[in-house]
């Protein structure tokens, strides 16, 4: 554990702060101070001794770029995960859980210049490890390690880590969740690809987005074909592709300048590319491209266009073709894509500038009035703009980077849950018609009341709670021996508990208690509650929960109907 | 990002391998080679260039002490999490998600000598962070940061990290899950404590353990009182307590030797302790201790015994007193407990020696024959022995270690899911009567068949799958244009899909298709399937799923009825 504790070195420069190493204490006090906070084995004991000092110096915060999730945010996020998981399972997916850190060498060489954003674990002896940067590389590593698995549909919802400059409000965090769905295996062309698009639509519908999203789609082979036809030299294909990928945020003139001035492309070639990549559309654009003799004579473009034709046919069968926009400017940054690529965008991810907001509002109006009207081309939708909420594509060669020989074709998508969370929350805030969000799911609050000499009926409340729990009903009671009735009602109201069970001495003596639905309007015949037999407690409660639609499952599932409205003023936690 | 990239040092000793620092490349090649694998910013580019070499050197494995979760194991673990979460929610708990790493100083000084097991992140500039070691300290940190929260019931199911010597088969891993439930806030005495015990019992019942577990319970104040009464000096209280805590694994003679020889306790004092700590029992033992005049005259013991008396009364109301054994030798290692402490044990966690197995089997028989018979004292149950599957207690002072001033009393429990997983899996393996575990949850496999000229009916299969998905039904079909019927049946069988929907050209032309329940016995009237109207597809499927008990919810929930038996030979993934 301490193999190098006794090493000594001499230091040849004065400014050595924050270098992770071990120096003899008397030599350099400032450095030593710093090192005490770094090394583990040598200094823990010293830190223990300094406990009081530590306490006063305490920085009571979470690390930069991370956050605690709590209260309503946690509930919304859980419901989003639940909705997404349900769709994944509906399509027969299984889940795999990989470690949060991988051997450092597994991650290296996979992320290009972004590799500098990888978090490393300290070298405390043993293997060198890094926190995972995404869920795709661990999946490919797992496939390579489990060669008996030749095909799988897997989903993975987990945190990934990027040592990026954080921008919390924009959902750019150092610790954030990804929801990945991937299909590995050899199948007939475009069938898994089509199912991924269908799954994507099912997820956004389950989240209550009701068509307010567009799936931009393209194909690496079409792109490469276009570049070849336009005259891009083979060694410039990827770098020109990267330039094109910026067209969603950068005007063509700027991209053209990058191609020609920075990347040395012939301006005529650039202009030919420009004519292609501005094109967006549905079936008519695809048919148009397929009639282009230049493209048809290029092997790559021809294959890509045939794939896309088949995909469009399948998307039609799946009733999701109207969600898709063929976008010749979509290129995607990552090198490993080999076929279809896609990105999901929505007006909610547009920039918050005044200009942007106007566009957004227009988009909102347009998409509201035109939703679900079938085969329309959404390419001119002003909502088609900035950030993506999900993205992915086909990557047929990544697994072989690990296995060396074995090649398992894969296609997948990753949902950016933090962006989806922000947009969903905004929309819930804006929609007053939806059901209020509760932080807990308690269905019954068990109360007691009485006059003079009231002893709190604690054993009776405990007995009733026990009976409800035994019946699988979510129930609470006050942890006070003699609680006051208003305090008990308040506790139930604050958490939006739908039913109160009220125990009184006389009623109990007669084998009865009162059940009261909370929040009934004045004048409602059951406003003051209904007397029920103690013997029928569980049945009576279940029957009412079912009637109210407030059954455990009913409340717990579904994001579409949630609202932040009514319960907004309640404390964030009970 | 690279503030120290240009530093130089001279090295005064030859053996410098694996020291995390940066050296000028030409000086020391072996070291440089090592460093290339360590430092991030300086060497990523070089690593990129070496991609081919990297590939051949590749170690295709997960880091030591970690594992991938997949297949049936993943399904069982998910169901365990689901069962535990359901109980937590039934008691009104909310969940909080904290970052996987905390500022290093938050964790330091909290774990005594185990602090050396904390994983640190590398110093890549910025804050120094460590991976969380448990979920309790982050919860206390959160409470201290959110001073508006004066009371909360929270659960947290997440991974924690310990740089321990791993022993994977014994469930000792470097990355493992904890399931924590804690109640913070000021309440009347022992009410939250009693609910934690009740929750614990509900969880093990939900996991199908049917009373095959014992909750050992004690109280720090009773223990301290006993030690004081026996004559332990105040400054030796904690260290003597630690010695006593070993009694579950170590014979008294050994513990006595540690107390007297190692810790310098008067042998007479040790013997007096010995008389107390061997005692285990239920209500009779508690009443006995409460009649002990010596203990009643000690403030600490008196308070602890009064608490325990109240707790036993409440546990009686909650019908869980028979699960509890007051155990005077239970002390718990962590310093921060201040009141009730408890540990859950089961015969399944006993050692796998031949002796141990005999005891285990005897225990199994005994507990099977005697289960659910009420108020019996389980203290002499031979299953009471070695490892614990859950543990916790009251810690009233931990939050103030962070907040400095504010004190929020807390009580909680942590479930060791990996041990629970191993034991549950063993029991499923042993129980042939339970339902087979499936890795996915697909309910319907959509197939097609036909004679000469059969085109595969792909659009029709897609249309049917789409209709099922739209109705929320879990469905799959073959991703082949022209699949063979036996291959389609095999795909359904391998995954244990309960229903096949079989499309044929003639049937479709007549507006019909066939639904077939899989695995019916020969001679069953519906063995060959039943013809249904295409128009009623969704209703017919839902009606059958409901009848079969194979509705999505029915299959997905519940751990108690699962089995590994029938589907054991199926491939682990589809």
TrEMBL record, chains A, B:
Keywords: Aminoacyl-tRNA synthetase, ATP-binding, Cytoplasm, Ligase, Nucleotide-binding, Protein biosynthesis. GO terms for biological process: histidyl-tRNA aminoacylation; mitochondrial translation. Residues 363-380, 565-574 have a biased composition (Basic and acidic residues). PROSITE patterns: AA_TRNA_LIGASE_II. It is an enzyme of class 6 (ligase). Residues 65-455 form the Aminoacyl-transfer RNA synthetases class-II family profile domain. It catalyses: tRNA(His) + L-histidine + ATP = L-histidyl-tRNA(His) + AMP + diphosphate + H(+). The keyword Aminoacyl-tRNA synthetase applies. GO terms for molecular function: ATP binding; histidine-tRNA ligase activity; RNA binding. Its EC number is 6.1.1.21. It is found in: Cytoplasm. Its main location: cytoplasm. Pfam families: HGTP_anticodon, tRNA-synt_His. InterPro entries: aa-tRNA-synth_II, aa-tRNA-synth_II/BPL/LPL, Anticodon-bd, Anticodon-bd_dom_sf, His-tRNA-ligase, HisRS-like_core, HisRS_anticodon. Residues 351-386, 545-574 are annotated as: Disordered. One of its GO terms (cellular component) is mitochondrion. Catalyzes the aminoacylation of histidyl-tRNA in both the cytoplasm and the mitochondrion. Belongs to the class-II aminoacyl-tRNA synthetase family. This is Histidine--tRNA ligase, mitochondrial.
């Amino acid at each position: 554990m301490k193999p190098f504790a006794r090493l000594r070195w001499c230091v040849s420069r004065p400014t050595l702060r924050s270098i992770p190493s071990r120096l003899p204490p008397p030599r350099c006090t400032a450095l030593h101070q710093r090192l005490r906070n770094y090394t583990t084995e040598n200094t823990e004991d010293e830190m223990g001794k300094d406990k009081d000092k530590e306490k006063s110096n305490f920085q009571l915060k979470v690390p930069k770029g991370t956050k605690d999730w709590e209260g309503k945010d946690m509930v919304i996020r859980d419901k989003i995960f639940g909705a997404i998981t349900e769709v994944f399972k509906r399509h027969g997916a299984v889940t795999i859980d990989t470690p949060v850190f991988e051997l450092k060498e597994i991650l290296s060489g996979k992320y290009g210049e972004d590799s500098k954003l990888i978090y490393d674990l300290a070298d405390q002896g043993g293997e060198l490890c890094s926190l995972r940067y995404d869920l795709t590389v661990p999946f490919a590593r797992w496939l390579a390690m489990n060669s008996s698995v030749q095909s799988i549909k897997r989903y993975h919802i987990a945190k990934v880590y990027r040592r990026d400059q954080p921008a919390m409000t924009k959902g750019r965090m150092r610790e954030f969740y990804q929801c990945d769905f991937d299909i590995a295996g050899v199948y007939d062309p475009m069938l898994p690809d089509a199912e991924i698009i269908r799954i994507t639509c099912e997820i956004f519908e389950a989240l209550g987005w009701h068509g307010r999203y567009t799936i931009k789609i393209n194909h690496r082979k079409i792109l490469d074909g276009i570049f070849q036809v336009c005259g891009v030299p083979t060694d410039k294909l990827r770098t020109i592709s990267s330039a094109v990928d910026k067209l969603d945020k950068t005007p063509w003139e700027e991209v053209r300048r990058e191609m020609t001035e920075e990347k040395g492309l012939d301006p005529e070639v650039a202009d030919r590319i420009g004519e292609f990549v501005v094109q967006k559309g549905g079936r008519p654009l695809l048919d148009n491209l397929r009639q282009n003799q230049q493209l048809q004579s290029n092997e790559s473009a021809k294959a890509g266009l045939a794939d896309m034709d088949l995909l469009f046919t399948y998307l039609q069968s799946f009733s999701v073709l109207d969600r898709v926009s063929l976008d010749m400017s979509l290129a995607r940054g990552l090198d490993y894509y080999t076929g279809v690529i896609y990105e999901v965008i929505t007006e909610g991810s547009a920039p918050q500038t005044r200009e942007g907001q106007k566009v957004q509002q227009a988009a909102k109006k347009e998409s509201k009035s035109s939703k679900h009207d079938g085969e329309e081309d959404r390419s001119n939708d002003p909502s088609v703009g900035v950030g993506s909420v999900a993205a992915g594509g086909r990557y047929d060669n990544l697994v072989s980077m690990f296995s060396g020989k074995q090649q398992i074709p894969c296609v997948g998508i990753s949902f950016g849950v933090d962006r989806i969370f922000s947009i969903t929350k905004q929309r819930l805030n804006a929609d007053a018609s939806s059901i209020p969000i509760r932080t807990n799911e308690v269905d019954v609050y068990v109360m007691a009341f009485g006059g003079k000499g009231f002893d709190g009926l604690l054993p009776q409340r405990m007995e009733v709670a026990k009976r409800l729990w035994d019946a699988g009903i979510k129930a609470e009671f006050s942890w006070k021996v003699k609680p006051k009735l208003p305090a008990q009602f308040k506790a139930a109201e604050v958490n939006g508990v739908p039913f109160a069970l009220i125990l009184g001495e006389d009623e109990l003596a007669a084998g009865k208690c009162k059940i009261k639905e909370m929040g009934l309007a004045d004048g409602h015949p059951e406003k003051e509650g209904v007397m029920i037999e103690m013997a029928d407690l569980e049945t009576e409660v279940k029957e009412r929960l079912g009637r109210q639609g407030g059954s455990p499952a009913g409340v717990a599932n579904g994001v579409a109907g949630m609202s932040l409205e009514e319960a907004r003023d309640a404390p964030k936690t009970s």
